[in-house]
Design goal:
2 copies of one chain form a homodimer. In chain A, strands 1-2 form a two-stranded antiparallel ribbon. Chain A is built from 14 helices and 2 strands, in the order ααααββαααααααααα. The relative contact order of chain A is 0.12. Chain A has one domain: Orthogonal Bundle (Farnesyl Diphosphate Synthase), CATH 1.10.600. Helices cover about 75% and strands about 0% of the residues of chain A. The two termini of chain A are about 20 Å apart. The interface of A and B includes residues 94, 145 and 157 of A.
Chain lengths: ~300, ~300
């Protein structure tokens, strides 16, 4: 991303390249899936979204000096396949029972529970295979490619978002403390966001301490992102959000409930600053990542 | 497996080593999962079963001259994690809505739908990571290890069992032809069975034509296995099967419905013979695999 044009324009341009990579990914699955299951995958994967994880992955790759290549968008798209699976499953009746996602009916409302559950699960191996072939196309060493895929699998599994999502349900109806909330979101949102940056850095061949710094950046903006989500839920209508503000409706603990609106805003800013500091500490010049840390806190949906 | 003692004894001994490997796998997940989700994983993974896929994997590894190692059971256990995930999801209310599995309540009946869906999905990345570390412990080359994990991911995903399971639902209530039925089961059961043998052969360093022959063996006994399942559903009670004979209850197409009991038995025998022929064609001495082909057809549950 060139740092000359304003961030929003660059994000829109990046989003377009991510969409193209996602179209390619779905096209590959089209050769393997029955029509109805493919339709659910299309709905879940190509239904819009900020594409924050792929954009972070590409930004980390570029900040670490990875040579320009369309394949980095294929690598980045693997993250969005996992994110799409988690949203498809989250919205199911036995989970959040959400009718709305990104201003459209949730996947299971249009394609059925059974198909959505299957299609979501199918995205997990698809994402891992996609990351592997992208690494091969980028010319990553076998060891680097292994590390990239391991980062994706770990963030997608028991140690990552799945553990956190489950803890999310545990939290319904009872108040969590600040530490619990942080641990929960560290896994739910933070694991895949951190993996996005780590994967980009690994694929670019970054040294360990830079990879670690980008992981720390990712965990911090993951937390900032979640706090911003809580603030949006507390201050905006479903119309603007494109989803039901379900966290409040379900009585889940939120940062706003814990710290108040202004306290939550302050915590988000602190996390964003911590993210940027992690980059500075290893001397990484990454103006786009610095801007993205602010963007995550200031976003309006 | 030594070919001296009778097959049933050897299977029991192998099963025990597989159980130990599964215990190790669950133990690793115990460090990452919340207690309730771990309980669902325990229920789904350690709840008994024939452990056919792991045993086939180990048998292929040994037939291809892989040096004895406890790690081959860890590799084999990865297949059972995927199998367990598929059964946990299959039994859910939005799929088969099964109360009973292996003579016990199905996982979601004891641990809830939400937890079971999450725990099942968490087994997919866990299985891939488990296969990778087992390959490393076995000293596989990076290229071999990649091929082993790719075989597992492909069989677990859109091109394998997931596509087939979905087609399974499509088949409810309308009669499928023999070719459709074969295509369906080739994916539903055959993909993971074939991967079991392919993974064992790859890990042992077998040449391509032997790997391919073991894949063909796996697809053939996969079909024989499914036909035997249809025969068991048609002739036995839930008590003996340890599950509800749901395929008939749901009006699915079965081999017995298509070919009659005797016709189905004959087709199972033909597939078993085809499996054995695939091994002979490449000169692979594998007495245990030959016995297992018969076992799959003659099994009583």
């Amino acid at each position: 991303m060139s740092p000359i044009d304003p961030l929003s324009q660059r994000l829109a341009a990046e989003r377009e390249r991510v969409e193209e990579a996602l179209e390619r990914a779905v096209e590959r699955l089209a050769q393997q899936l029955p029509a109805d299951m493919l339709a659910a995958v299309r709905h879940g994967v190509l239904g819009g979204g900020k594409r924050l994880r792929p954009i972070l992955c590409v930004s980390a790759y570029e900040a670490c000096g990875g040579p320009p290549s369309p394949s980095v968008y294929d690598l980045a798209a693997a993250l969005e396949l996992i994110h799409a699976y988690s949203l498809m499953h989250d919205d199911l009746p036995c989970m959040d029972d959400a009718d709305l996602r990104r201003g459209r009916p949730s996947t299971h409302r249009e394609h059925g529970e059974d198909v959505t559950m299957r299609a979501g699960a199918a995205l997990i191996p698809a994402a891992a295979l996609q990351a592997r072939s992208a690494c091969a196309a980028l010319g990553c060493s076998p060891a680097r490619a292994r590390a990239v895929t391991a980062a994706l699998l770990e963030a997608s599994g028991a140690g990552g978002m799945v553990g956190g999502q489950w803890a999310d349900l545990l939290g319904e109806g009872r108040a969590l403390g600040a530490e619990e909330l942080e641990a929960l979101h560290g896994r739910k949102t933070g694991a895949l966001l951190a993996a996005s940056l780590v994967m980009g850095a690994l694929a670019a061949g970054a040294p360990d301490r830079v990879v670690a710094a980008l992981g720390a950046y990712g965990r911090a903006i993951g937390l900032a992102f979640q706090i911003a989500d809580d603030i949006l839920d507390a201050t905006q209508q479903a119309e603007t959000l494109g989803k039901n503000p379900s966290d409040i409706a379900l009585g889940k603990s939120t940062y706003v409930a814990l710290f108040g609106l202004e306290g939550a805003r302050e915590r988000a800013r602190v996390e964003a600053a911590r993210a940027v500091e992690a980059l500075r500490a290893v001397g990484l010049e990454a103006p786009t990542l610095v801007e993205l840390a602010d963007y995550v806190v200031a976003r309006e949906r």
